[in-house]
């Protein structure tokens, strides 16, 4: 979190954010070549390669630099950044413009590459969070042991994005790098994973509003 709560350990690179729902074909191409985001850039809001030294720049020029907090700079073997649970990256200023874009479209797509050495992390441990603190957020990806958790603020999910939160089970299965895209088009959440030819989907049918009170989806 912005406050340093719920830390995550692992390596990360190639964070790409769109304010629109990518089609599956484009998402798969971007899994192989994230830099394609710069040429197929309608709705592109941020691209942080997360390579080299800090500060880490958004190459679109739209969002603030990411700056190390607490423990300082570490790098992974593949040239990305490595987090040890004591350090994290945060923007030096707010990114309210980004969420104004999300509110306008009610869609998003996020591409990320991660590897985790610890499959028992929980909290959920925050991979990516745009939040005020652990209880008020716009958006979050997290690791809950083997599961990938997605939260985002909406009239359905509330200020913390947890009624319901969305869960993709058995996502973290090894420490090998995992490239994936999460796509939300207002009606469903799709997970496109480079390790599989299948797309995993959660449809937000009308019954979700009732079912959300019973358990995570």
Question: What does it look like?
Answer:
Helices cover 11% and strands 38% of the residues. With 217 residues, the chain is mainly beta. It is built from 3 helices and 13 strands. The strands form 3 sheets. Strands 1, 2, 4, 6, 11, 12 and 13 form a 7-stranded antiparallel sheet that branches. Strands 7-8-9-10 form a 4-stranded antiparallel sheet, with no helix packed on it. The protein has a two-stranded antiparallel ribbon with strand order 3-5. The radius of gyration is 16 Å and the shape is globular.
Helix content: 10-25%
- Strand fraction equals 35-45%
Radius of gyration based on Cα positions: 16 Å
- SS class: mainly beta
Termini distance? 22 Å
Overall spatial form: globular
Major β-sheet, in short? 7 strands, antiparallel
What's the total number of strands?
A: 13
Number of helices: 3
Uncertain runs are none
Mean pLDDT: 90
Order of helices and strands: EHEEEEHEEEEEEEEH
Summarize the structure.
With 217 residues, this protein is mainly β. 11% of the residues lie in helices and 38% in strands.
Secondary structure layout plus pairing:
Elements: E1 9-18, H1 24-32, E2 44-48, E3 66-70, E4 81-84, E5 87-91, H2 96-105, E6 108-115, E7 125-133, E8 136-144, E9 147-152, E10 166-168, E11 178-184, E12 188-193, E13 199-203, H3 208-211
Antiparallel strand pairs: 1-2, 1-4, 1-6, 3-5, 6-11, 7-8, 8-9, 9-10, 11-12, 12-13
Short key terms for the protein model shown above:
single chain; 217 residues; mainly beta; 7-stranded antiparallel sheet; 4-stranded antiparallel sheet
